[in-house]
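Please decode residue identities from the backbone states below.
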């Protein structure tokens, strides 16, 4: 991720935000599984996200992401990426949480989601959501510390259809016990 605090650096954070107010390690691990994504429409209201949206925004860098299309009883995995082949910058939130017992500091993040654009509504046809992905011109704006709530809300919107491309991929990504962390998993 690229954080507001260090916009010149790319850092490694753990996916699944742990808010500052979480007390125990067990509670933190449970919380991470519930905060992989943050819905843009309710982000200012949810206790887990309302501090970070104002003070701790980040860009989550990715070559693409996976989503599943539901057709009857079947789920078909897709790989979605930028049409130009560049990295995408997804809108995120982060938090630095300290484990009170071990004193370990965990840097964690959530990816913000928006309603799906028309391309993603066809693919993610069950929930019709997509990650907040920025146009290149607005990436740095997301990290600006001077944004007010209205400015932030204006940036939380679906990306234009023509920026993304998608193709079905091998079911290997969903195969239990298989090593899906291989380049072939992104191939059509």
């Amino acid at each position: 991720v690229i954080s507001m605090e260090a916009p010149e650096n790319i850092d490694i954070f753990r996916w699944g935000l742990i808010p500052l107010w979480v007390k125990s390690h067990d509670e933190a691990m449970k919380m991470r599984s519930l905060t992989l994504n943050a819905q843009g429409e309710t982000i200012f209201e949810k206790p887990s996200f309302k501090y970070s949206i104002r003070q701790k925004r980040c860009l989550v860098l990715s070559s693409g992401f996976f989503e599943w299309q539901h057709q009857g009883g079947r789920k078909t995995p897709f790989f979605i990426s930028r049409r130009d082949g560049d990295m995408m910058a997804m809108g995120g939130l982060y938090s630095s949480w300290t484990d009170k017992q071990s004193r370990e500091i965990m840097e964690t993040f959530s990816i913000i989601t928006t309603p799906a654009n028309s391309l993603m509504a066809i693919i993610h046809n069950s929930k019709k959501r997509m990650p907040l992905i920025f146009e290149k011109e607005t990436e740095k704006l997301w990290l600006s510390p001077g944004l007010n709530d209205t400015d932030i809300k204006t940036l939380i919107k679906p990306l234009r259809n023509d920026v993304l491309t998608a193709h079905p991929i091998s079911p290997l990504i969903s195969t239990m016990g298989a090593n899906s962390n291989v380049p072939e998993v992104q191939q059509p």
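Observation: The mean pLDDT is 95.
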